[in-house]
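Two proteins were folded this term; both appear here.
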Amino acid sequence: MNLSLKIEEASYKAKMKDYYFKLTDEKWKLDKSITISPIDVIKNASSEIQSGYIHTLAYCASNFSAGYVSAINNSFKKFFAISQIKVIDGESILRFKAGLKEHEMYCLCCMKSFLERWVNFNYPGIHSSSVAIFNEIKVNRGAIGEAVKRRDPNAGPYTDDELYMLKTKTNELLSEGKVDLSLFCFLHLLISTGRRPVQLTSLKHIDLKKDDKGIYINIPRVKQQLTFRESFTSNILAEELFSLLLQLKERTINQIEEKFGVKLEQHFKDLLPVFLNKEAVNLCTSLIDLKQKVSSDFLHAKNESLINEVRKMAKIYGFISKRTGMILPTISGHATK
C-alpha cells in the first residue's frame, strides 16, 4: 500500500479497551475473538480507494463493535473481489448487487452506512452516487425470522424434545465427569437465556445476582456503538444453574490465587470473567499485569473456542435430532429459548 510514513506511524485505539492497530498493520486485532485483514481486502484496489477505505475503516474500528467492523470488511472483500474499479460509484454498486445471491444481500446493508461515512469524510476513492443509488434500489436484508416461523430443523428453534434431550444428556455427562463445568454452564446459559455466545463470554462474576428480586444474571448487551459491558439486560436463573455458576466462579478464583500465590480482593474477584481464557491468564507475567487487563475482554474465553467445544461434544456424545436423524446443529444459528 502506498501510505505515507506519517500514516504508518499513527496508532489507533480499537473500540475494545487495550487493543490498538496501525493503518499499515497486516492484521488488526479488535478484540479477543476478532482480527481483520483490511490490507488484504484492498490490495488490488486503486491507491485512492486504498486510502479512503483504510481511513474510514479505522474510524469505524475505533467507534463501533468489532463484529460490525468485521462484517463491513468481509462485505468489501466480496465487493473488491469482483469489482476492478478506480472509484466506487453507483454503477459499481449496481453491478455488485446483480452478482449477489439472496442470502448475500446483507453485504449491501453493511456497506451502505460505511459508504455514507466515506463520502462525508471526503476521503478519496468514492463518488457520492455510490450512496445516492441506495435510494433507488431495494436492499433485502434476508428472511429474518423465517427459520423460526417455519420451524426449520437446521436453523429454527429447538423443539421441546430437543431441549429436553440437550439438558438431560449434558446433566448426565457432568455427573459422570465427561464434560467440563465451564462448558456445561455455557451451554445451559445459551439454552435458558437465548442470548448470543458473545454476550455470555462477556460475563463477569459481578453479573451473578441473588437478592430480594430473586436469582438472576445481568447479561451485557452487544451493539455497534456500545462499549464493552456498557448496558445490560437481566435474566432469571434456575437455582441449580446459579449454584453451578458459583462453583465455576470459585474454581476460577482459586486458579488465579494459586498461580500468583496471593489472596484476591473481593472487588477484583467480581471483575474476573465467568468464562475464563486460561491461555490469556498464562500470558500475564504478574498479578499487576493481570489486573491491568481485567477491565477489557482479554481474560474472557473466546467465543469460537467455546462454540467449537460444544459442537465437538454434540458430535462425540451423539446429540441426535429426531426430526432429521442428524447430529443436532448446536448453536449454529438456532434459537434456544
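Next, the second protein.
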Amino acid sequence: MSFPLILAFAAVVLAAVAGVVLVREKDPQRRARALVKMGAVVMTVFTAAAVAFIGGYAMDQPGGMAGLMMTLSWFVPMLVLAALAWFRPAVASPLLILLAAVLVVACVWFALDPATARSLQDSVGPVVAIGVVALAFPAAVLGLKRSGPAGWLLLALGTLPLLVTVLGRSGPAASLAAASAVPLITGIVYLVAARLARRDPASRNTLPAPA
C-alpha cells in the first residue's frame, strides 16, 4: 500500500472514531476531551509516519549528509514550534498563524510561476507538503491547550495550500493531498471539540480538565 493511501486510511479512521465518540459519549465536556486527545494522538502517529517517509526519501535522494541536513532543516524547527505550543501557547498561536500565512503566500507565488515551482520541488522535494507537515504537528499540540484556534489553523493548512496548488497546477498534488488529509480532519475534530467545550464558559477554547 502506498504512503498516500495509508494516510488517507488514517484520515478515514479518525473520522470514524470521532463519529463513534460523538454517538456514544453523552457528556459534552467528555466528548470534547476525548475528541481533542484522539486528534492529537492521530496527528502524532501521522507526523511520525510522515517524518519516516520524507526522511527516508531524503536519505536516498540526495542521501548522505545532504539528505540528513535537509531533513533536520524542517524537523528541528517543527519540534521547537511544538514545544513552544505546549509551554507558551499564547506565543505559539500567532506565530503559527504567521507561518501558515507565509506558506500560503508561497503557494500563491508557486501558482503564479509554476515553472520555477516545479524546478524547485524537483531539486529539493515537495516543499509545500513538508511545510504542511511541519506546521500541522505544532498546531495539533496547540490544540491540547486551545482547541478552537488550533482547529481553524489545521483547517487552513489542510485546505488552502492544496487548493492553491491544484488551481495553479504548480506542484505534485498527490503528495500534498496526502499531507493535508489528516490535518484537515483533525482540524474539524478540534473545532467540534471547541464547540462542545463552549457549553461550559470556564473551558472555552481549551481542553476540559479531566474529571
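The radius of gyration is 17 Å. The mean pLDDT is 83. These notes refer to the second protein only.
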